[in-house]
TrEMBL record:
Mg(2+) binds at D8, D10, D179. This is PHOP2 phosphatase. GO terms for molecular function: metal ion binding; phosphatase activity. It comes from the Eukaryota. Gene3D superfamilies: HAD superfamily/HAD-like (3.40.50.1000). It comes from Oceanites oceanicus. Keywords: Hydrolase, Magnesium, Metal-binding. InterPro entries: HAD-like_sf (IPR036412), HAD_hydro_PyrdxlP_Pase-like (IPR006384), HAD_sf (IPR023214), Pase_PHOSPHO-typ (IPR016965). NCBIfam families: DKMTPPase-SF, HAD-SF-IB. The active site is at D8 (nucleophile), D10 (proton donor). Belongs to the HAD-like hydrolase superfamily. PHOSPHO family. Its cofactor is Mg(2+).
């Protein structure tokens, strides 16, 4: 009996968007209008690439970025939840699927000593260049019309499950914890025994509710949360069953 926990990162594990949090490093803690207005829907990773160039051009170094990123707050109750999962790793496999980047997530999880809670992190690869600039790439290519071009979370989840099956690992239940519009695609992939846990007041909750109103509800169960201790309560019931 093993459960798979799938977490989004921004506004789910941490209570902010890590990509916009880094703007605190910019001169006057803001971006020039031209740069801010250069974002095009579905092309967030390319936009963040330009933000990192701007930070690099303004002399923002790796250590300053790291100091800033490790001050990002965790969502209410999340520290307790991740501690609980860490104590019960024999029951839970735990992955992150996020549109952030490897450098930010690594810094934040290691600073709080939560990196061992997660078995794998699927996110846009990032690294510092020889000149000290942070660079970021698209996670993968895909053909899903619903998702941003750099990341289809359904594809990531499906490939992970296929790989686990090859290793002889299957899950009693998948619990998907997220908040954003790009979390709907993997939620639609979940089966009736699985559960989606959208954060209250965020886009994923609204999209799932709209589908139910349109009489096209998702197949899995849905449980909303506002504090991560509510997720922990659910998991405690799950492992007692």
């Amino acid at each position: 009996m093993k459960f798979l926990l799938v977490f989004d990162f921004d506004h789910t594990i941490v209570d902010e968007n890590s990509d916009t949090w880094i703007v605190k490093c910019a001169p006057e803690k803001k971006l020039p209008n031209g740069l801010r207005n250069s974002y095009r829907p579905g092309c967030w990773t390319e936009y963040m690439g330009r933000v990192f160039v701007y930070l690099g051009d303004n002399g923002v170094k790796e250590d300053e970025m790291k100091r800033t990123m490790t001050t990002i707050p965790f969502t209410a109750g999340m520290v307790d939840l991740l501690g609980f999962i860490g104590e019960n790793k024999e029951l839970f496999d735990c992955i992150i699927v996020s549109d952030s980047n490897t450098v930010f997530i690594d810094w934040i999880l290691k600073a709080a000593d939560f990196h061992k809670v997660f078995d794998e992190v699927f996110t846009n690869p990032a690294a510092f260049s020889s000149t000290g600039y942070l660079t970021v790439q698209n996670f993968h290519a895909h053909h899903c019309a619903k998702c941003p071009k750099n990341l289809c979370k359904r594809k990531v989840l499906k490939e992970f499950l296929d790989k686990q099956l090859e290793r002889g690992v299957s899950y009693t239940q998948i619990v998907y914890i997220g908040d954003g519009g790009n979390d709907l695609c993997p939620v639609m992939f979940l089966k009736k025994d699985d559960i989606a846990m959208p954060r209250q007041g965020y886009t994923l909750e609204k999209k799932i509710s709209q589908l139910a109103q349109d009489l096209r509800p998702v197949e899995c169960s849905v449980l909303f949360w506002s504090c991560a201790t509510e997720i922990m309560s659910y998991l405690k019931v799950l492992i007692k069953e």
